[in-house]
Amino acid sequence: MTAFHFNLVACDGAARRGRVMTAHGSFETPCFMATATAATIKAMHPEAVRATGAEMAICNTYHLMLRPTAERVAQLGGLHKFMNWPGPLLTDSGGYQVMSLATLREISEEGVIFRSHLDGSKHVLTPERSMAIQHLLDSDITMCFDECTPHPATHEQAAHSMRMSMRWAQRCHQAFQKREGYALFGINQGSIYPDLRRESATALKDIEFDGYAVGGLAVGEGQDIMFRVLDETVSFLPQAKPRYLMGVGKPDDIVGAVQRGIDMFDCVMPTRSGRTGQAFTHRGTVNIRNARHLNDPRPLDERCSCLLCKNYSRAYIHHLFRAEEILGPMLLTGHNLQYYQDLMVDLRKAIEHQTLTDFVVGFHEQQARGDIEVLE
Amino acid sequence: MTAFHFNLVACDGAARRGRVMTAHGSFETPCFMATATAATIKAMHPEAVRATGAEMAICNTYHLMLRPTAERVAQLGGLHKFMNWPGPLLTDSGGYQVMSLATLREISEEGVIFRSHLDGSKHVLTPERSMAIQHLLDSDITMCFDECTPHPATHEQAAHSMRMSMRWAQRCHQAFQKREGYALFGINQGSIYPDLRRESATALKDIEFDGYAVGGLAVGEGQDIMFRVLDETVSFLPQAKPRYLMGVGKPDDIVGAVQRGIDMFDCVMPTRSGRTGQAFTHRGTVNIRNARHLNDPRPLDERCSCLLCKNYSRAYIHHLFRAEEILGPMLLTGHNLQYYQDLMVDLRKAIEHQTLTDFVVGFHEQQARGDIEVLE
């Protein structure tokens, strides 16, 4: 069993090219993790997800504690075996979902009491319980349980929320059962306020985590503000540990965040869009449900190597979505994940070759060219 | 381009082991065709369907004429290219679906005027139009357009309906554009009445088709009556041509029909059941949604080689169905298709080795053993 560690392989400006070792294998960074909320990457066989180049997936504590329960997953041999994902897994702590999905929440210093969005049953999530659940799931990277600060928040609200999350981070660190190859990440909070982001970073560094996430962004503040907060926040984080921007994002969000020194990403966008007919392509986003694809014999994206682009016409994918056939979401999710993984490959190569600036110029030209449709 | 033909390889009692050559390759019989109603086998990549052993798929004239239209499929290079199915394809004529799905039908000697179940638009389907549509689709095996006699039907109703279908069969034969490797099958009707089945068989043989289907069964008459009608009807059909029992059926229906000399089958059961949680296994049918699978670490069917049985526990599949995750239908459809194809392999081997009687005894013992649940 190898120890959990992060190798920094190359830098290009603030951008970093690295490799993370975990108990279940390594992954290259910058990386995009496939979203496997309920222990499945929606509409995908896990083998097909790995074939896109994805080395890492992210599951959700909130969803799995309710169904099938962490105890049941543990009894069945852990999450990797349960969902047939032999590679590294990260689990979100449930903090965000308790706020966005659960009902009748009561938040206190101790933790959160809430009712399940599935059946109304009552549950408690505390820093200690979140650590125990993620341990039962056998997650390679455990995330601290924090409060997701709403946006917008006043400086006072953001400070109050962030400071409680930092006290919870200390409790997570104490409760986390260290094992060789397994990691615990702290989560930086502080909304859009640089002084709070700095205070949060200092608090986390004092506790000492295996990696540092930036939380509370991509919640409606807009890309300009997100990038400004990132510029400031990343400068407060240690160089030697992986950095994870939670829940981000669109392709150009990822490109900009990589330029600012982020190593890890996750987002429902490629999978969710894949189920609704939105495609990410080398000429921007495309809505395959649009009638102009009705007779189009061309592949969706000539530069893509996925099953959809190799074997089918735009007209066929359009037909599948019009007819509400499951193969539509299956193929388009696969395509979108391939697009995201290809983007990460390109970003990693560009950092290695010190050509990131040129790559980013080309990326924005490409995205602006051709038949762009705005992703709603 | 090879001519369409049927090679009879071996017999065991009335059961036949054969091979059918078509313009898009050959298939072994007895065969079970994968249902691809709207030019997709629901919840399956076509490569994965072929990996189960399926060599042949069946699409539907009614569905495809409405969406995306036969003209569009033709313009896009035909059905094989459109849906990425390089192997042989059969198309149903639309007769059955016009009766079961369309609204405001007016049936006359000329054909059927109806309204689409999708948007209420008005359409006409005649023997000539059905032939033209199936030609545009580029179907390897075209089915005659017939009237599906309702069940139950009096002798008079059944005779009237069958005789119109026989006149339509003559018009189909005249309208069908012969091409090397392409075939037209006639459809035997006559409800449960032996004299009408014989009259229908004689009429079809006089016209001379490339294969003969038995229609109007598995419509609620029960297995005993179906087998009795089959015993009689098959004896009226030519030995040298393939025989196709339309829309059948459950595994034991197929076994019994193979014993009675049927070569080809199609049924939505494995795919539709796969989407609702019903599994076909070597110990009978299983409802994976049942709570007793909640903690079960065993594979669904130890004798099966599909992705589901190789890589997942019953508990995981149960979880996927409870959580309404698309991977559940994907995996279970794959399993059910594998079960059906494995059954066809076993039947073909048993006929080759003249051991069909023993195989059938073993099959029924297996199905009666273990934790059988009745398929609703």
What attributes does this structure have?
homodimer, eight-stranded parallel barrel, 376 residues, 20% strand, alpha/beta, 2 domains, TIM Barrel, 16 strands
Verbal overview:
- Two copies of one chain form a homodimer.
- By secondary structure, chain A is of the alpha/beta class.
- Chain A folds into two domains: 5-266, TIM Barrel (Alpha-Beta Barrel), CATH 3.20.20.105; 274-368, no CATH class.
- Chain A has helices at residues 46-51, 61-66, 70-75, 79-83, 95-100, 127-137, 155-175, 194-207, 223-236, 251-259, 269-276, 307-311, 314-322, 327-352, 356-368, and strands spanning 5-12, 15-22, 25-29, 31-35, 57-60, 89-92, 103-107, 112-115, 122-125, 141-143, 183-188, 211-214, 243-245, 264-266, 278-281, 284-287.
- In chain A, the strands form four sheets. In chain A, strands 4-5-6-10-11-12-13-14 form an eight-stranded parallel beta barrel, surrounded by five helices. Chain A has a three-stranded antiparallel beta sheet with strand order 1-2-3. A three-stranded antiparallel beta sheet of chain A has the order 7-8-9.
- Chain A binds chain B through residues 38-45, 47, 67-68, 72, 75-77, 82-84, 294-295, 297, 307, 311-313, 315-316, 319-320, 322-323, 325-327, 329-331, and chain B through 38-45, 47, 67-68, 72, 75-77, 82-84, 294-295, 297, 307, 311-313, 315-316, 319-320, 322-323, 325-327, 329-331.
